[in-house]
Amino acid sequence: HLFKSGGWSQMSEESSEKQPNTLFGVKGWLLFLCIALTVLSPMRMFFDLNNMLRETIPYFSMAPGLLVIVVLITVLTLALAGFSIYSGIALWKLKPRAVLITKRYLLIFLAYSFLSLLIIVFSIPPEVTIGAMFHEALKSLYQPLIFFGVWYSYLLKSERVKATYANIE
Asked: I need a labelling partner for 25 at 20 to 30 A (CA). Which of 32, 49, 51, 144 fits?
């Protein structure tokens, strides 16, 4: 009886309509991304700001322009932390364009990571730049590169992201 007059296809359509999409919703890695954007990433930025201030204050007298650079980096970091929180909340609350906003945040985050390193490297006089400090700054680029690469590719390829935001975007 199921194969006559489309009975089989009708039955499968009905059963697929009754089954909820298990990939829909802010769960799993998507939930972790939201937590990373709203809590972990801003906390890390504040921690890094604190470390930068502690490390650079002794050199303010040797490099008068260093204070301006530190203030600039602080303002940019606070703005980036705010954008991180905004994009995480947009994802969490299933806001329109949330995935696009988060992709933009990730691109800006990556650009900021390179820009802040360049600002520090080219603004500090050679006598102040300590070799270990320079190497630490270069090593600090690995984390933003990994963070960007993992989460940007996740937003591009995740079935959960597609299922959750397909009708919202």
From this structure: 144
Cα gap 29→91, rounded to integer Å: 12
Q: What are phi and psi of 65, to 5 degrees?
A: -75, -10
- Cβ burial, residue 141 (10 Å; 0-12/13-18/19+): middle
pLDDT tens digit string along 43-74? 999 998 898 888 888 878 877 777 888 888 89
* pLDDT tens digit sequence for 96-116: 999 999 999 999 999 998 888
Task: Report phi then psi at 97, rounded to 5.
Answer: 65, 15
The string of pLDDT tens digits covering residues 4-48 is 444 444 444 444 455 566 778 778 899 999 999 999 999 999 998
Q: Rounded to an integer, what distance in angstroms lies between the CA atom of residue 58 and that of residue 56?
A: 6
* Cα–Cα distance for residue pair 23/52, rounded to 1 Å: 41
Here the tokens at position 35 are 């937590």
Largest CA distance in the chain: 89
